[in-house]
Here is the input.
Amino acid sequence: MLGCSVGTFATVCVVLLASGESKAPAKARYFKGNLHTHSLWSDGDDFPEMIADWYKTRGYDFLALTEHNTIANSVRWVDAEKDETRRLAVKKYLARFGHDWVERKQDQGKEQVRLKKLAEVQSKLDEPGKFLMISGEEITHSFQKLPVHMNAINLKEIIRPVDGASVTETMRVNQRQVAEKRKKSGETIVSFLNHPNFVWGVSAKDMAPVDELRFYEVYNGHPGTNQQGDGTRPSVERIWDLVLANRLSFPRGVPLMGLATDDSHNYHVKAMNKPTPGRGWIMVWARELETRQIMEAIDGGDFYSSTGVTLSHVGYKNGVLSLKIEGEVGVSYKTEFIATLKESSEEAIGAVVGSSESLEPAYKISGNEWYVRARVTSNQAHPNPSFKGEVCTAWTQPVLP
Ligand SMILES: [Zn+2]
Ligand SMILES: [Zn+2]
Here is the structure.
């Protein structure tokens, strides 16, 4: 729901229980989650339960493990002694989950450890109202040497990537696969393009014509994803405006929404040049921590993205886009309202049309905007940055006048 009014669920309804008693539904609130994570099921370096536990104990409400072209539902063993990192991972795994839970065997004199399936990890870590694991996959493909990676969240069966005749077609045919799965399963499966600037694989020009593509990563915590662009190529955030301006200047253009994710792979070191967890996440506005509700909220655009700025409210009502920032003591915030105005030049795409240092910034739509979105930057350094000089930021979804 673009142009949604997040945080303004005024209707009070009553849920009838089987017993005939009624119960008022939970009040909507923000739930924090990461939808891009790798474990030993692909090229991450830790066991899935350890990773889920990392997120759970740090206040995350939900998590999707998104392995390269894999869903964790088969029997798989890994070498316990592959290298120093693996030995450390096994040691920590045993210490945290115990000998009764961790499954080991000897194979030709080598110790093996079994990777638990998603259902097993869920049985151990999921907790009603506290932590929810959602299935996922990173559909990992390329066109020639250009990587085209797309996450699909809440799918039960693997999607094997198929070829397209260009980068654009590769996105399109694979997004269509996701749409088909969604239709067939009746589940809300959400898919987004990952890290467009990774190996400079996907440009705004490639993305804009793919109407099937409704989401992309405005922030990916992997330090190899050229988040800031370079001298000649735009930043990942700039790509958002380029796609939005291109699409929305046509009738019935499909907006693009932006997610922040970790793309975490390394869990045993903390270094700027490693893809470690805890860098970027989304905050989803829902009543309950339940897969359908979380997925429907994301699908409808009822979420914002963050690397450390917390919002308690994002609303769009009567032509006013308004935010409430949960300010921290000693930290200052700057909100920029970013828009592309109708009939503006190419250079004016994604221009800052309003700016505020208030904790309750607002922007009144003039009607001359194709779209407006907000970015809040704080003066606080990111505690675990993926690039030099990174500060805590939040991004809200574009609204269409
Ligand atoms: Zn990727
Ligand atoms: Zn990834």
Q: What stands out?
A: The pocket of zinc ion (ligand 1) is lined by residues 138, 149, 194-195 (CB under 6 Å). Confidence is low (pLDDT under 50) at residues 1-20.
